[in-house]
Fold this sequence. Notes:
mainly alpha, two-stranded antiparallel ribbon, about 30% helix, binds ligand L3BTUZDS
Amino acid sequence: xxxxxxxxxxxxxxxxxxxxxxxxxxxxxxxxxxxxxxxxxxxxxxxxxxxxxxxxxxxxxxxxxxxxxxxxxxxxxxxxxxxxxxxxxxxxxxxxxxxxxxxxxxxxxxxxxxxxxxxxxxxxxxxxxxxxxxxxxxxxxxxxxxxxxxxxxxxxxxxxxxxxxxxxxxxxxxxxxxxxxxxxxxxxxxxxxxxxxxxxxxxxxxxxxxxxxxxxxxxxxxxxxxxxxxxxxxxxxxxxxxxxxxxxxxxxxxxxxxxxxxxxxxxxxxxxxxxxxxxxxxxxxxxxxxxxxxxxxxxxxxxxxxxxxxxxxxxxxxxxxxxxxxxxxxxxxxxxxxxxxxxxxxxxx
Length: 349
Ligand SMILES: O=C1C=c2cc(C(=O)O)[nH]c2=CC1=O
């Protein structure tokens, strides 16, 4: 068997043909039923409908499965028949698993697209969002879509992504009905970069200096291993701290700031992967994570063994991936262990 080490590159460095191929691959994934997975649209006690002799599973496209998985990880957790659901449990954010969870999420999509294209060399590119200013440099029609001239919140009709319809939009309905997001296609992607007039802080992208500073934070994570951790690399790149690592409840930086800057579908956690810019924002976040692991000599003991939120401890499996995969399996250098690497010029002081 040939082993491919794929290289994830800056999307702005792709040639015109490479850009077309990447956008085409995402669009094919959006429109191809996942060959391996179906989604559950009810909780486990209602998965089999005895009266109708049916099951509550649905087919879903490869890309929408990627969206659904993220939705599921942040949605309320079903506690059992008659016990309702618990909010405030997030398997993929606000804890040490933020980086390991999103790393595996991207690997699954990359592998699914490699299989779809029958091309093991396919690699997801990244968006270096740490460029400062108020322009989305990849929001062009040959990449993730320019702004529409007709509605500042929508994508240009010249972009294939203007025809994408989002899934998992009706979170309040699923919660009130006690169901799970299904494959129903909803509205168009909304995006208005730098357009949140009510919140000036999220009208600018992170600065290159912010990446320099966050890579200098020494500890991977610190108690209480949550969104108020201070001097935690994970909480800093996630974006709940000053880029230097100091926790500040009023700050949104790095990854969180890039999401909020998008001001639309990509800025709402239940929905954000519906906007394909999510993929590129997260590959860059993962590149920073990999660089941190390299500079700080990765050692499994840096990852908390216990006392993190549910799903975030070192040996816990990441919800809802199947077959099970634990956080620690993703706390490794990508080049040596996971079959991909990044081609990045890191900013210096
Ligand atoms: O999609 C996301 C949207 C986010 C908004 C924040 C915030 O800090 O308010 N964080 C987010 C993470 C996401 O993944």
